[in-house]
Design brief:
295 residues; alpha+beta; Jelly Rolls; Arc Repressor Mutant, subunit A; 2 domains; six-stranded antiparallel beta sheet; three-stranded antiparallel beta sheet; 10 helices; 41% helix; 18% strand
């Protein structure tokens, strides 16, 4: 799949995009765009890849992504219907000088923070959901006010957390294509045994070259990334199914319970059974950024 420096079509009467995208139009590979993105998930669940972050998204989640922050959201199950209200806006959607005045200093700080990718905590996400859904149908100056209200609430409440620790890099087409192929292969194959020679072949590189490239691009090893995808899937299975921990272990791509427990504890700071007991009735899952671990 050709990578995207994405540019959504803009209505001639609008200065920014606010539109619902639903399967099959929701699915977009690893991409980036100069506009900021505010996204509310209205259906579905899956894995979020933002900068060097791997986590989970669910219905009701809200993210604010900075300019040129690479990302993709991938469904857990290929047949799952997923949809989201996507708002993409340039830094200058309300003029070039408004974010430089004292009254908008907090919003300027919010936009700067969004370069690491921000996920709203549940209470703020619930406040933003009706505003974002109404924004899609607003017209005239009401659109500016509605988006401004969303930014104001995020800036004032600061009820969010950063997800990525990677500096933003503008990928060229070849680099983005390589990362996109690796992500898609991993999502399709993580339940099976994967070795580095397979992934290196997908990236059209030797194993040493691929390992160096992936670590340089994401600030983590491919094995770290693979474990994050597997544990992300396992976390969802623990909360949404009655399957035993042993069955989830094997279904997530692990060959031994010992390794599954080790990786789960490293990423979630609790055992699988503790995770199931603590978070089963909650709406959101804990997210993780994992540093480089040499293999």
């Amino acid at each position: 799949m050709k990578p995207l420096i994405q540019k959504l079509p803009l209505h001639p009467d609008h200065s920014f995009v606010a539109k619902t995208f639903r399967t099959p139009h929701f699915e977009v590979g690893w991409h980036q765009h100069i506009e900021y993105e505010l996204i509310l998930f209205t259906e579905g669940a899956g894995l979020s890849f933002i900068g060097n972050h791997v986590g989970e998204f669910d219905t009701g989640d809200v993210y604010l992504l900075g300019s040129n922050l690479p990302h993709t959201f991938q469904k857990h199950i290929p047949d799952l219907i997923t949809s989201a209200v996507v708002v993409q806006f340039p830094d200058s959607f309300w003029g070039h000088d408004l974010t430089n005045i004292p009254e908008t200093r907090a919003i300027r700080k919010l936009l700067d923070d969004s370069q690491q990718g921000l996920k709203m905590h549940d209470s703020l996400a619930r406040q933003l959901a009706p505003l974002l859904q109404a924004l899609e149908y607003a017209s005239g100056f009401r659109r500016i006010l509605q988006l401004g209200e969303c930014l104001h609430r995020m800036a004032e409440e600061r009820d969010y957390f950063a997800v990525s620790t990677q500096d933003i890099k503008v990928y060229n087409a070849r680099e983005a294509a390589c990362i996109d192929r690796v992500i898609r292969f991993t999502i399709d194959s993580f339940r099976e045994r994967i070795n580095l020679s397979q992934v290196a072949a997908i990236a059209c590189m030797s194993v040493p070259a691929f390992c160096n490239y992936f670590k340089r691009s994401t600030k983590k090893t491919y094995i770290d990334f693979l474990n994050e995808v597997r544990i992300g899937y396992a976390s969802t299975q623990l909360l949404e199914t009655q399957n035993s921990v042993l069955d989830i272990c094997y279904d997530s791509g692990y060959n031994t319970m010992a390794n599954f427990h080790k990786q789960f504890l490293r990423l979630r700071r609790v055992t699988p059974l503790q995770y199931r007991k603590q978070f089963r009735n909650k709406l959101s899952l804990p997210q993780n950024n994992i540093g480089i671990v040499d293999q």
